[in-house]
Write a structure and sequence with these properties.
The chain is 53% helix and 15% strand. It is an alpha+beta fold and 284 residues long. It folds into 2 domains: 127 residues, Signal transduction histidine kinase, dimerisation/phosphotransfer (DHp) domain (Helix Hairpins), CATH 1.10.287.130; 147 residues, 2-Layer Sandwich (Heat Shock Protein 90). α2 packs antiparallel against α3 and α4 runs parallel beside α5. It is globular, with a radius of gyration of 26 Å.
Length: 284
């Protein structure tokens, strides 16, 4: 968008300067303004207004929606904390239970703010990006081990099939992106099933695919799950533990590594999330 605007301004000045040069050859005419330059500049402005109005309006609408969603997400734990404090003030209240609830909501609020700040840093070009060579399989093995402990609480398992792949990129950012997808899969997979993680390299590109056996995502929602604060409107979100930021962070990380994040429903009814990025990622 910035490149388009800069190019448009350059064109306007180029046209205007050209008109001025043309007008100098006709100084005997009673015209004080280079009319041709004015008309051409006005035409360019009209064209740009028509061309840019729709994406700019969409961008403004998206930003306003983001602020509304952010306000809602921040108010929800605060409202629950206020309810818990109100109950705690009652003479017959179970004070330790209400204090535990306040502590839980405070932890959720802290986690939400941390995710928002992380998402903001990913969008800030002034934040330096670390780039190092590391073994991706070793990183994912660590993530799978942690996810397995969580999966065991619902009698599920996490299975890894990974090649040894050395990549260049931001290890912390990539680890966060993959962990978000993996924990999401563990959370939604049905009890007694498996979450499958595949890591392979082909043609200078790394593919990380995480497959769960959960309820899947309606086709109408599948393109939106990487948007901040977006939640699927069906049984994919059985409780309010998530804020819809994890997959948005994953999408941003992939974009910074010149990669992509794609989701699709699999044959078992669950969700496949596929992360693709170059082995040598020249980050944005």
């Amino acid at each position: 968008m910035t490149l388009i605007v800069n190019a448009a301004v350059s064109i306007i000045f180029w046209v205007h300067d050209g008109g001025v040069r043309q007008a100098r050859h006709f100084e005997h005419l009673p015209v004080s303004v280079p009319v041709s330059a004015f008309i051409l500049s006005a035409g360019v402005c009209f064209f740009l207004a028509r061309y840019l109005s729709t994406p700019i309006r969409k961008m403004v609408d998206a930003r306003q929606q983001l602020m509304r969603d952010l306000s809602h997400e921040l108010r929800s734990p605060l409202a629950r904390m206020q309810i818990a404090l109100g109950l705690a003030r009652r003479p017959e209240s179970d004070l330790p239970r209400q204090l535990d609830r306040v502590e839980l909501e405070a932890q959720r609020l802290d986690h939400l703010i941390d995710q928002i700040m992380r998402l903001s840093r990913l969008d800030d070009p002034a934040v330096p990006r670390a780039c190092e060579r590391f073994n991706l399989r070793e990183l994912i093995e660590e993530l799978v081990y942690s996810a397995t402990l969580e999966a065991q609480q619902k009698q599920a398992d996490v299975v890894l099939a990974a090649e040894e792949v050395w990549v260049h990129g931001d290890r912390e950012m990539l680890g966060s992106a993959i962990e978000n997808v993996l924990r999401n899969a563990v959370h939604f997979t049905r009890g007694g099933t498996r979450v499958r993680v595949l890591v392979e390299s082909t043609g200078g590109e790394v593919v990380v695919r995480v497959s769960d056996s959960g309820p899947g995502v309606p086709e109408a929602d599948i393109e939106r799950i990487f948007m901040p604060f977006y939640r699927v409107s069906t049984g994919r979100a059985p409780d309010d533990r998530g804020h819809g930021i994890g997959l948005a962070i994953t999408s941003r990380v992939m974009r910074h590594h010149r990669g992509t994040a794609i989701a699709r429903n699999n044959e078992s009814g669950g969700l496949d999330v596929e992360l693709r990025f170059p082995v040598r990622a020249d980050m944005l």
